[in-house]
Design brief:
This protein is an alpha/beta fold. It has 8 helices and 9 strands. Helix 3 crosses helix 4 and helix 6 crosses helix 7.
């Protein structure tokens, strides 16, 4: 069989360059005419170039990629809740026979917690949005866990984005089993020494609580920055964080968050059982305290 010799014409490349001006860069375009017709078939024509002189089309960032690069929206608000009335609030001798982490709520405390949940629900409903959710952080003590279970009755399961038990939110450690008379003496000494720095024997000072709350605050800020409260790709700006903890712990949290001084802390008192402090998201994503009522019983 005789060999067939096929000669293909060479591609022709043509450039056009526009000179640069004071306000426009060099504009370069090229066009390739490849084999206008080969064996009766039409050839191919390519064109390219952009205003900065590089070949090919400019990179395009998709809307999804841009969305990933944007930081997640900050929560709508942070709500601090103290546990409901506990057995220790009613009878201090409970601490002499029951470990502090196992002190339960009273019947009144459960009712207070349910009422608190309804107040939180009403507050969120006022926003007038349909896609809101709540995310809970809670101290591992029995009275705070029971408070959470009672107040959570105000929310459908679909509204609860998650619950995290956080040991750093526990109550100040007053030192294992607490003898009533000994505690009276210790609290009197604390008043003389200073409520922030006085450390209970075998226990903690408020300064010790400050140190662990500082660690929790950094965790919380990191969770906010990465949008831990939401599934990947979900950018709901109507998330509400609820922190269920203890009187002194919440005061220290506010002190650390707003950089209050020790002197300012000394003038604070606990909020009431099942009361709350609301930190609303304000200008620039900062959280403003709008309902501080630190005026109840002394810790």
């Amino acid at each position: 069989m005789a060999a067939v010799s096929l000669t293909l014409p060479r591609p022709v490349v043509s450039f056009s360059v526009s000179p640069a001006t004071a306000d426009k860069p060099v504009k370069c375009k090229f066009r390739v005419h490849c084999c206008k017709e080969v064996n009766g078939r039409p050839g191919v024509e390519f064109a390219g170039g952009n205003q900065n002189g590089s070949a090919g089309s400019p990179e395009k960032t998709t809307e999804r990629e841009a969305d990933v690069k944007r930081p997640p929206p900050r929560p709508r608000r942070i709500i601090l809740v103290r546990h409901g009335e506990s057995e220790g609030n009613v009878d201090e001798t409970a601490y002499t026979k029951v470990p502090d982490p196992k002190i339960a709520l009273t019947e009144k405390g459960h009712a207070e917690a349910e009422a608190c949940g309804k107040r939180i629900r009403a507050l969120i409903d006022k926003d007038g949005v349909v896609d809101w959710q709540v995310y809970f952080y809670v101290s591992p003590y029995r009275r705070t866990l029971e408070t959470l279970r009672s107040l959570a009755k105000a929310f459908e399961k679909s509204r609860i984005a998650g619950v995290r038990e956080e040991p750093r939110l526990r109550e100040q450690d007053f030192g294992n089993f607490q003898d009533r008379e000994t505690m009276k003496v210790q609290k009197a000494v604390r008043h003389l020494y200073g409520r922030f720095f006085y450390r209970f024997p075998n226990g903690e000072s408020a300064a010790d609580v400050y140190d662990r709350i500082t660690g929790f605050r950094e965790t919380l800020k990191a969770d906010i920055d990465i949008g831990r409260f939401q599934p990947p790709g979900n950018r709901n700006p109507n998330m509400n964080i609820v922190i269920v903890s203890h009187g002194l712990t919440l005061r220290v949290f506010l002190m650390r968050w707003y950089k209050w001084t020790v002197e300012q802390f000394q003038g604070l008192h606990n909020i009431g059982n099942a009361d709350m402090v609301v930190m609303e998201r304000g200008y620039g994503g900062r959280f403003l305290h709008t309902s501080i009522a630190l005026h109840s019983a002394v810790s």
